[in-house]
Amino acid sequence: MTYLKRIIGTVLFALAFCLIMRVLSPIFEPKNNDPQSGIEEVEASGILGEPDNSIDVVFFGDSVAFCAFNPLEIWKTHGYTSYMCATSGQTMDYAKISLKRLLKKQAPKLLVVETDTFYREQDLTDRVYSDVREAFTVVRYHNRWKMLSAADFTTAPNYTWKEDYKGYHLKTDRQAATNPNYMAPTDEVEQASFFNRDSFLAIKKVCDDNGIALVLISAPSATNWNYARHNALVKIAEEAGVEFYDLNLMTEEVPIDWANDSLDGGDHLNIFGTRKVDAWFVEYLASTGLVDSRRDDPNLRHWDEALGRYENALPEGVPVV
């Protein structure tokens, strides 16, 4: 009887704890997505402030991705709307949760996953913690207790802030790669972790359920990528039934000059490398027939305004193209 009472007491405590967390979560949740609101990953969260169903392409990945694709230049050349939802050190599980979150406001036609994310460490503890943070917003935003106001207790979130660069991180420094021959062929396979592969399959299911095309792209990175990882992604793509493009091997289509197109010795691309990736990507995107130009949409005039501010901010030595 004593043992049964303990079990009942534990269950009741857990239920009460979960109830309290549920009550606190909407209070602690940021009420806007601007930098002052305390929202996490503010650049990537800028997509929440875009007009509903206005973003046709979404990118996920880590810093390799947000230095490789520039939504503003994609908009300038073809009028396609895209958003960079990559974040530093992003795991595949975080991408899965972010995708579910943005689908409340957007209906993208294509999801691009940059493949370096497959090699971000993630274990069972990380997965559980990630799920808890998503279920109880107060865990994710507990530090906001310092900035709570009366409005936090009565106001629902209303995301209005638009990030000018659409999640892209503008980098113009140059540092040559030290290992430009990093893609030496091999039969070795560097497996991605089970948890990242499992989260990717969950992303695939979300895409299938929502009619979203999914593609895997390896952006050029002499530090992070190699042929063994390429071999692993070929198998992952085949098993998932998705397209995979390894730009590290597509040197004619994306002619990266590792002496000039790298920001930091081959780890990330600078803007000169990004423009080469974008030139390939817009042609690929046009070939899919998935998206149309939105240049004449009156609700998207802020894109041209953001493009103007971006081009005015380009430093000397970086021409407007």
Helix content: 40-55%
Number of strands: 5
Main β-sheet, spatial strand arrangement: 2-1-3-4-5
Percentage of β-strand residues: 5-15%
Q: Unreliable stretches, pLDDT < 50, 5 or more residues? A: none
- Total of DSSP H or I helical runs spanning 4+ residues: 11
Order of helices and strands: HHEHHEHEHHHEHEHH
Largest β sheet strand count, sense and barrel closure:
5 strands, parallel
Our measurement of the CA-to-CA distance between the termini, rounded to an integer number of angstroms, reads: 77 Å
Q: What structural category arises from helix and sheet content? A: alpha/beta
Give an account of the 3D structure:
By secondary structure, this protein is an alpha/beta fold. The protein has eleven helices and five strands, in the order ααβααβαβαααβαβαα. It has helices at residues 2-28, 42-45, 63-66, 71-78, 92-102, 124-135, 137-140, 194-210, 227-240, 271-288, 301-313, and strands at residues 57-60, 82-84, 110-114, 213-218, 243-246. It has a five-stranded parallel sheet. The longest helix has 27 residues, at 2-28. The chain is globular and about 75 Å long. It starts with a helix and ends in an 8-residue tail after the last helix. The mean pLDDT is 91.
